[in-house]
Design a protein that fits this description.
Blueprint: H1 12-36, H2 39-58, H3 71-90, H4 100-130, H5 136-160, H6 173-197, H7 201-218, H8 223-226
Helix pairs in contact: 1-2, 1-4, 1-5, 2-4, 3-6, 3-7, 4-5, 4-7, 5-6
Amino acid sequence: MSEMPREFHATNVDCLIAILIAIGLPIVCGLIYPLTGALLPLILYYGVCCVGVVKWRRGSLEYRYPQNWALLVFFGMIALSVLQQVIGLVFTTPQAYQDLAGVLLTLFIWVPINSCMEQLSWIYCFDAFATRFPDGRKKVSFNVIGVVIMLMLVGLIHAFFWAKFTPAIGTSPSSIVIFFALQFIITPLYIVLYRKTHSMVPLALVHVISDVVLVLGAGFNILPFLIF
């Protein structure tokens, strides 16, 4: 039998933390990256904001067997995520597997880590506002704010950090517009999928498939970007 979800009730502290993560984290990661490479920002992102803060405030990372799989949403998100990566890669020059070992390490190490980590902070930033009030107009208003904060985090972390070295966004204005347009459609669906499944497992699987397409499609090797 799967673990029952622990009900999360956010406080003003969570709202403040969510704002700091959504705005501050992308800026800090973007500033650190040119100085150190991606490893230190990734430790800050994954270790502190995704695992540390979420475990501290929620009490659980929510990786449990789903109550149901919400298959329509699940497969719809996979289709949109793959489409996003494929369109982005059309505007990108593949790295042509110049370092096959690096590509394989990226595929089997970075992809699972990234796919299991990122949406922990995304959902937390949403829930920090969405669960602040139990009902009424404030709950509706704070749900909207939560979506905005979550979109800010996803948009800014891609613009200020991931775009500096991942190939999927590309460099042309067309690829950037398409990537972010699809990202702003896909991101709220993570909330829908989480609410329906009460588990991070389906969200991670969607993300895994998206990142696998990125790595294999572009021959992406993250190793040269980790430490300068």
